Each structure stands twice: as structure tokens, then as C-alpha cells.
Amino acid sequence: MKWTEDLAVGIGVIDMQHKELFVRINNLLQAIKEHRCRSEIDGTLKFLDDYAVYHFAEEEKRMQETEYDGLEEHKKHHAVYLRNIAELKEQAAQPRVSGVSYELSVTANQIIVDWIVDHIMKIDKKFGEFVKSK
Q1: How many CB atoms lie within 10 A of CB 84?
Q2: Which of 24, 31, 106, 130 is surrounded by the most beta carbons within 10 Å?
Q3: Against a cut of 0.85, is the pTM above it?
């Protein structure tokens, strides 16, 4: 998963946080691919969960400050991601015979990669456009 400038929403701090999410997500995907130890994968998932809460609060605060009318809908999208991360953490906690399961890898891609790119491209960009128009 690669950060490209077309993912930028035009709000410096949010774009910086998105870039950090990409770095961490790539670390998780690499750890899964290389069948690294459970503690590394669990630690990365915990970071993604914690960082998402921090990042989402930052986005929502800025939306509230600018009186963005899409705030409530945006919060719903964030809640879906947090539920998905919780599911992924549950799946990662399941016993595995050796290394990491293929299913975990697929789920991580679907839950994290697909969601984050789709969310940035469709939902966060709307907010970026709103801020630019003010």
C-alpha cells in the first residue's frame, strides 16, 4: 500500500496522520506476510486501533470547528473502522498452528487497506474540499 499525493485531503495535519497510518499498515501487512511473531502483529494492531481513535478525534474536532455538515455521517464511518479493527484483533488472537493464517492476511487487507483508501478518497476528501471552499 503506497501513499500517493492523490490521497492528500489538503489539510496538513490530517495528511501527515494519514501518511503515518500508511507506514504502520504496511508494517502490519509485512509482518503478516513474513509470519512474524504474534506479539509484533498484536502490537501493530493495538497501535492502529489507538492511532485511529486519536486521528478520528482530530478529524472530528476540526469538522466541528468548521461546522462541517457531514460530521455525523463521518463519525459513522469512523465507528465502522473501529469495529473492523476490533474484529481483526479478535481474529489475530485466535490460535494458529504455525505463523499467521492466510485468512488473517486477507481480512487485514479488506478491513484496513480497502477501508482506509476508500475512506480517504471518498469521505475525507469531501471534508478537505469543504475546508478549501471556506
Answers
A1: 17
A2: 31
A3: no
